[in-house]
Design brief:
The chain has about 300 residues and is an alpha/beta fold. The chain has a single domain, classed as TIM Barrel, CATH 3.20.20. Helices cover about 35% and strands about 20% of the residues. It is built from ten helices and 13 strands. The strands form three sheets. Strands 1-4-5-6-7-8-9-10 form an eight-stranded parallel β-sheet. Strand 9, helix 8 and strand 10 form a beta-alpha-beta unit. The mean pLDDT is about 95.
Amino acid sequence: MTSPRWIDLQVNGYAGVDFNSDDLTLDETVTVCQRLAEDSVAGILATVITAPLDAMLGRIEKLGRWIEEVPEIAARLTGIHIEGPFINRQTGFVGAHPPAAVLPATVDTAKRLIDAGRGQVRLLTLAPECDDTFATTRWLADQGIVVAAGHSDASVDQLRGAIDAGLKLYTHLGNGCPTMLPRHDNIIQRVLSVADRLAISFIADGHHIPRFVLSNYLRWVPDENIIIVSDAISAAGLGPGDYQLFGQTVHVDEAGAAWSADRKHFAGSAATLPDMHRVLTSIGISASTIDRWMGDNPARLLGR
């Protein structure tokens, strides 16, 4: 079932380890790499989410230094994904990110984030409507960073403008948005309208998107533009219970869904890529197609 070619573009933590903890240790990171190898995951982007800027810089620097200096980590951590802080702070769109730490996109702040990663940042997710004239998107693309939209309420024109400026991906479509949306003109429909120009990632854990809805999305998006991500948190692979994520308590229920403490929204995923393989198989997706969506397509996006 599993494939050593799988690449996960969004891993916040795994097997009890949180990449967004200031207490993250080298030994814990090596342990995560070993567990990923056991799950036949060839590489991941360790994901650092919105936090006070100095905290983000410290977390990114630590991960970048370890990727640079520790072969066991470099073999499994393909790089770093920065999700935020340039996202939409409105309730629903902000998701589990702390609204007080959200910032408007600027080239100067983006440069500080990228520099902290010591050449290891591969992907940055922002909201195009928070990037005035798409200057930050354009600068990041010029540096060879894959720019994704996410946690966003961008208009169709804003999405098209960002694509023209270098936007390549939409992060976990169907999530990072309110549960109630206008029935026609909403961020999901807008992104699907440009699916021929944009790679789109989906969390295929069976919880973030109901299976029948996921099937609809997958039929609409061109095969070469579909990417499956886990959005895994430290609870991934550990089963039901209460876990710490970004300084907050997350509850994983008996069905495997990871909820915020108030049970109002999901807070990342407790699923692994092998779990998602099983979900995709259950809705009739072939093993070779899943391998493309989990392996070939993310690798091509990263230029591998």
